[in-house]
Amino acid sequence: MYEYFKGILTKITAKYIVVEVGGLGYILHVANPYAYSDQLSQELQIYVHQVVREDAELLYAFATEEEKRLFLNLISVSGIGPVSALAIIAADDNAGLVQAIEQKNISYLTKFPKIGKKTAQQMLLDLEGKVGTIENASPRQEAQSTNENQALEEAMEAMLALGYKAAELKKIKKFFEGTSDTAENYIKSALKMLMK
């Protein structure tokens, strides 16, 4: 089992990043790959969790220990897998998640992809009292100048990878047309809109 990797960020895709450690390139699945854009070709330390399945061994990565702890709490809930947990973390609204759990707000929880009423109820049972100390844990970065169309396309591709439906994203994409921002900020804004 791994605690963290320290290596060079060599690649960013819509679904994962690649970090080279000791000459090996590790595919690390993260909540928002474009949040790491300003660290490309630089050394970083990233916390990891390995998931071993019958057909694959996958590594999930997190900017902070708190984000990793939230992920582990989420995947401990029956019905929430690693991809759904990443989608919840990608919303970057841990305060809203904590509040929803404390207030037993099922309608808020069912706004996440692949989270139905039954799974939301299970989240309330399993996570009550466990997530109250977790703060927003995603790395904060300054907006960068990026090709706006490319950034928006990358953001929509990452949202699809998190499990959101193309029909939902089409409406969101129209809202952002003509704007200029980074893929990371588009994702954050889109997730906030979808959570309303």
Automatic annotation (TrEMBL):
The keyword Transmembrane helix does not apply. It comes from the Bacteria. InterPro entries: DNA_helicase_Holl-junc_RuvA_I (IPR013849), Hlx-hairpin-Hlx_DNA-bd_motif (IPR003583), NA-bd_OB-fold (IPR012340), RuvA (IPR000085), RuvA_2-like (IPR010994), RuvA_C (IPR011114), RuvA_C_sf (IPR036267). Homotetramer. Forms an RuvA(8)-RuvB(12)-Holliday junction (HJ) complex. HJ DNA is sandwiched between 2 RuvA tetramers; dsDNA enters through RuvA and exits via RuvB. An RuvB hexamer assembles on each DNA strand where it exits the tetramer. Each RuvB hexamer is contacted by two RuvA subunits (via domain III) on 2 adjacent RuvB subunits; this complex drives branch migration. In the full resolvosome a probable DNA-RuvA(4)-RuvB(12)-RuvC(2) complex forms which resolves the HJ. The keyword Transcription regulation does not apply. Has three domains with a flexible linker between the domains II and III and assumes an 'L' shape. Domain III is highly mobile and contacts RuvB. It is found in: Cytoplasm. Residues 72-91, 107-126 form the Helix-hairpin-helix DNA-binding motif class domain. It comes from Streptococcus oricebi. This is Holliday junction branch migration complex subunit RuvA. SUPFAM superfamilies: DNA helicase RuvA subunit, C-terminal domain, Nucleic acid-binding proteins, RuvA domain 2-like.
